[in-house]
Amino acid sequence: MKTFFDYIEPSGKLDNGKITKREKIYQGMNGKYVERFYIEDGQSYIFKPLTNTDQLGREIWAQERILLDLPPVYPKILAHSTSNDPEESWIILEDMGPLIHVFEEKILAEVVQLMVQWHSFPVGELAEIPVKGPKPGIEHISKAVIKKKEEILDLLKGYYISEDLLHKFFIKLEETVFNDEMVLSHGDLHLGNYAKTKTSIVVLDWEHVHLNYRHWDLYHLIDMSHPVFTKNTSSELREDILNMYCRLADQQGAAIDQENFFKEYFIFSSVFSIWMILLISSDLLIENSKWPKNQLHSQLDETLSSLAQCLNKV
């Protein structure tokens, strides 16, 4: 009887001679592709080589220690390599079928209900849980933005962002000390990492799970832009989702001061969006950027829109 290992070469690649079909899904940061592959009986699975060396073993750890205690809204890992060599590291996941990445309130509401559950996970029981994610922490981001204040004021003036609002924001930012409560964070919850299937919502790519502020996942869900997965948020939608989160978190026993929670979110979102604008602007200057220029311009427009909305609430 064949096992999943029979479909993988010793080098950690899919064996073309053993599978009947393969389809590229997306390319990781290291150039490797996550793929759907089919075997003799027509069944399909997802082959995911390690796409980021720093995440070696993290997705397997997340399933074994965390995900099994959450609702089954993630693709289960069915097999994985045992090698510690990043080049030979891979996992095989169940195929949950076609995924539709749509930014709409009904889907956001379902994701928030799940988010509150993983934010309520008893992190004190996991001494080995990572404390860093794929991006710098919000304190680092804030310091970087404050350091580049004059550059940012000049840059955003060209995008018709109110200079008065920006000066007001920088005063608030320099006074802000973010709530120090840490929760279990998905870590990278942009639109490409949650989707709807024919029957349910699915949350993908848990290799970046770590401890972070509640606002980290919320920002990625509501306001984080992506060059591929476009979305169009609004002030009304943002406040609806934040209200829902506070209500559900209170039901889980979280003592959230809703007024301060909102104020802090708008500062968090504004500083993160400014940092993203700096990164996107830098990518636009690169001749052979990973992302096409039209996608980067679209991402920049989305980020500027979110920034303008949140600055008006700071």
Provide the descriptors you would attach to this structure in a database record:
single chain, 314 residues, alpha+beta, five-stranded antiparallel sheet, two-stranded antiparallel sheet
SS-based class: alpha+beta
Give the termini distance in whole angstroms. 62 Å
Low-confidence stretches: none
Strand order of the largest sheet: 1-2-3-5-4
Question: What is the CA-based Rg, rounded?
Answer: 21 Å
Helix content: 40-55%
The SSE order reads EEEHEEHHHHEEEEHHHH
Q: How many extended strands?
A: 9
Major sheet: size, sense and barrel closure?
A: 5 strands, antiparallel
Mean model confidence by pLDDT = 92
Shape: globular
Number of alpha- plus pi-helical segments: 9
Beta-strand level of the residues, as a percent range?
Answer: 5-15%
Describe this structure in words.
- The model has no long low-confidence stretch (mean pLDDT 92).
- A five-stranded antiparallel β-sheet has the order 1-2-3-5-4, with no helix packed on it.
- Helix 2 packs parallel to helix 7, helix 3 packs across helix 8 and helix 4 packs antiparallel against helix 5.
- A hairpin with a 4-residue loop joins strand 7 and strand 8.
- The longest helix is centred in the C-terminal third of the chain and has 27 residues.
- The chain is α+β, with helices and mostly antiparallel strands.
- The chain has nine helices and nine strands.
Secondary structure layout plus pairing:
Blueprint: E1 21-27, E2 33-38, E3 44-49, H1 58-65, E4 77-80, E5 90-94, H2 105-119, H3 138-147, H4 149-157, H5 163-175, E6 183-185, E7 194-196, E8 201-203, E9 210-212, H6 214-222, H7 235-251, H8 258-284, H9 293-311
Antiparallel strand pairs: 1-2, 2-3, 3-5, 4-5, 6-9, 7-8
Helix pairs in contact: 2-6, 2-7, 3-8, 4-5, 8-9
